[in-house]
Amino acid sequence: EALSRCIGMKDCAKQRICREIDWVKKTTKTRVDKLQLAADEHTGLEILHLFVLDLLGRDTPAAIIFEQKSEEDFKTTQVVTAFTKGIAMGVLFLLNVFFAYYSVLYGYQQGQGWQRQYLFACLAQMFVEMFINETLEVAWMNF
């Protein structure tokens, strides 16, 4: 019956409240779906961001400026599930095993002389990396 009283008015308070509630329901559904996989830190930051927007008034110039500044200062992150990370780790592990096996087979075909040269080259590379490159990096970064 309250809605029937609002029909003749331009913008009834009940209609406006209903529109706001519908907007909140729709926005909440999309945000909850988006944050389902996020860490607690990301979820808390998003809730705090929405709270500040509500305090400023979602459609006010202050809220719009806050939203634009937040988008500029804080980059969005993409959530990667533990399952996807596990698949990536498994693929990398299998690739490492394959290339190590390939290197062993290649060394076996080349003979002992080549294997000694390869071992010397690996040790020389390790020495250069540890004692020259890392030392230069520390000197460059700290002085």
As a percent range, the share of strand residues is: under 5%
Total E-strand runs: 0
Q: Percent of residues in helical segments?
A: over 70%
Content-based structural category? mainly alpha
Task: Enumerate how many helices there are, as a single number.
Answer: 6
SSE series: HHHHHH
Q: What is the overall shape?
A: elongated
Mean pLDDT: 85
Uncertain segments: none
CA distance, first residue to last residue: 78 Å
Radius of gyration, taken over Cα atoms and rounded to an integer in Å: 30 Å
User: Sheet with the most strands?
Assistant: none
3D architecture notes:
The chain is an all-alpha fold and 143 residues long. The protein has six helices and no strands. The longest helix is centred in the C-terminal third of the chain and has 31 residues, at 112-142.
List the helices and strands and how they pair.
Blueprint lengths: L1 H5 L6 H23 L4 H17 L4 H13 L8 H29 L1 H31 L1
Short note summarizing the structure:
This protein has 6 helices and no strands. With 143 residues, it is an all-alpha fold.
Provide the descriptors you would attach to this structure in a database record.
143 residues; 0% strand; elongated; mainly alpha
